[in-house]
Amino acid sequence: MPDTVLDARRAIDAVWRIESARLIAALARMSGDVGVAEDLAQDALLAALEQWPRSGVPENPGAWLMATAKNRAIDRLRHNEMAARKEEELGHEVELRARLAEDEPAEAASDEIDDDLLSLIFTACHPVLATEARVALTLRLVGSLSTAEIARAFLAKESTVAQRIVRAKRSLAEARVPIEVPGPAEREQRLASVLEVIYAIFNEGYAASGGEEWVRADLCEEAMRLGRVLVGLAPREPEALGLTALMELQAARFPARTGPGGEAIPLPEQDRSRWDFVLIGRGLKALERAEALRRPLGPYALQAAIAACHARARTPEQTDWERIVALYDALDAISGSPVVRLNRAVAVGMAFGPAAGLELLNGLAEEPALRGYRLLPAARGELLERLGRVEEAALEFSRAAALSGNAREREVLEARAEGRR
Amino acid sequence: MAIVKASADSEAGKMPSEELLGAMGAFNEEMVKAGVMLAGEGLQPSSKGARVSFGGSGERTVIDGPFTETKELIAGYWLLQVRSLEEAVEWMKRCPNPHEEPGEIEIRQVFEADDFGEELTPELREQEARLRAEAGQNQ
User: Fold this and answer.
1) Where are the domains of chain A?
2) What DSSP line would sit under A100-111, residue for residue?
């Protein structure tokens, strides 16, 4: 039975979602330019949109798209021969022509495909681009999101995102970024850049996932997917595993995170039966794999290990706070971040009593980086309250409330200041 | 969720051929590498299982396997993270036939917290609608 036009369109979109990243990756390797690669891939998609509603989705859609993209490339080259071209573009075309002429097998070897995709990911996340540009380009080329979808996800104008992507491709071309997997000397820095992009996508979705539009909440899913893809391509990178574990363990708590009024429910008060145990299982396993690589744990793996402590506790009382303190010790040693030290102090307060935690927080009182940070006085308020120093606690909660940029959070902090919970 | 229906062979506990195991393994690996596979398990024949039957007035009966409606029984499942039913369908079209005979894979959508609607009060829904409208105006 023939598909209706809409059904066909949706089926093609689904195929595109599965095939496009690898298609673009292969074309990028052949042409040496992500812009050219995407254009050719789009040509193939247009052909599919024209033909598949009539002929049906082919047996091997990936191979069909690749063959079509190559044919379109040849057409373009022939056409461009007649027009005056800039030297650089000609250069790419010469390379492309040579690659097309090579007797490329219809199905490239699995390793080659993996290499292509890994190269594309590294390229889209290249540090020469600003984070915003890397995020948009990665979501487009690797995530197969449309410009409209990316714009909706970041509450930006579609034209802004479109321009951002165009400029990003141009920057890569101008900087002559080679499309390849970075060598050992650069690897760590370049990988850090990729992880930063993926986590930025996750955090964007995380901020939005409190009952808001699914497109933004789906960013978390896309980030986790990208993390898994990266792990598949670079299985011996502990931080890729660590980041994926961290995201899965954090995402596992989403169903318990929001109350009926949209308010954020803090971790100690969450209904843990609502946590997603499939994601917890996955996160713990990914962390295990990271640890099994027997290299010192990096910041993502350490944060994942902390999240794992929470995930393993059936009730807040069962939380292994001492282990969390030890993990923060390790994290502090690597990052030297005052926020980490703040979180460590809170953990110390839980593991060794409020007085110990308070002493550490007092040590952070003059810390410039924490000046406007409401969580510092909030944490002090919490510990003072536990020590029975109620008036001092109220003062700290008021201070925290004044620093809060979020009306709902401010209400909660003001209530604490008045001794209400 | 993608549910693999049983076959006479799977109910008989007959192991799939080397070839099929290899093909299934490769297919699983494709889904893992694409980052869409969350979980997947094979289920043992219903002869090793049981049913709890609810009478409707609070009574419960336990019935031991095996069960006879082979085609409706479940032999395995995958839990997939995809963005549409069509994407799940497209993946399952690429699955090797799990049995040496005609068979079926059923695809169902898992309920998520959002689907229950309790997270969104009328005020929040209104706010969300306004956000969407604003974002739409920015186009």
Assistant:
1) 320-421
2) HHS---SS--HH
B109 CB near a chain A CB, below 8 Å?
A: no
CB A246 within 8 A of CB A196: no
Whether residue B12 lies within 8 A of chain A, CB to CB, comes out as no
* Run of H or E residues at A215: helix A214-233
Tell me the chain A residues in contact with residue B126 when contact means C-beta distances shorter than 8 Å.
none
Number of compact structural domains in chain B: 1
Round to whole Å and give the CA distance between A208 and A154.
Answer: 10
B119 in any annotated domain: no
Q: Is the residue at B38 inside a domain?
A: yes
A255 touches chain B (CB under 8 A): yes
Structure tokens that stand for A262 in this block: 């949209």
Cβ distance of A232 and B81 shorter than 8 Å: no
Q: What is the pLDDT of residues A149-183, one digit of tens each?
A: 999 888 889 999 999 999 999 999 999 999 999 99
The boundaries of the domain holding residue B27 are 2-112
Angle separating helix axes A5-31 and B85-93, nearest 10 degrees = 70
Residue of A nearest to B112 (CA): A255
The class (CATH top level) of A320-421 is mainly alpha
For the stretch A334-383, pLDDT in tens is 998 999 999 999 999 999 999 999 999 999 988 999 988 889 999 999 99
* B113–A274 C-beta distance less than 8 A: yes
CB < 8 Å from B in window 269-308 of A: 274, 278-279, 281-282
The partner residue sitting opposite B90, judged by closest CB among A11, A152, A281, is A11
- Asked whether residue B122 is assigned to any structural domain, the reply reads no
Give the whole-angstrom CA distance, residue B40 versus residue B1: 9
**Which range in A70-74, A89-93, A285-289 is most confidently predicted, on average pLDDT?**
A285-289
- At a CB cut-off of 8 Å and minimum separation 6, what does A208 contact? A216, A217, A219
Chain A residues lying within 8 Å of B36, measured CB to CB: 225
Strand order of the sheet with strand B2-5?
A: B37-42, B74-80, B2-5, B105-107
- Residues of chain B in contact with residue A241, where contact means CB-CB under 8 angstroms, are none
Judge: B120–A214 Cβ closer than 8 Å, yes or no: no
- How far apart are the CA of B27 and the nearest CA of chain A, in angstroms? 13
CATH, residue B84: 3.30.70.1060
B46-99, pLDDT tens digit by residue? 999 999 999 989 899 999 999 999 889 999 999 999 999 999 999 999 999 888
**CA–CA separation, A404 and A174 (whole Å):** 43
A384 with A365: CB under 8 angstroms? no
Domain membership of residue B91 (yes or no) is yes
Q: At what angle do helices A214-233 and A110-124 cross, to 10 degrees?
A: 130
Taking the mean position of all CA atoms in its chain, how far away is CA A412? 30
| Of the candidates A107, A124, A102, the residue with the CA atom closest to the CA atom of residue A19 | A107
CB contacts of A149 in chain B (<8 Å) are none
Rounded-to-integer distance, Cα B89 and Cα A145, Å: 19
Q: What is the dihedral of CA B51, B56, B60, B66, to 10 degrees?
A: -20
Interface mutation target, options B27, B37, B38, chain A, most CBs of A under 10 Å: B38
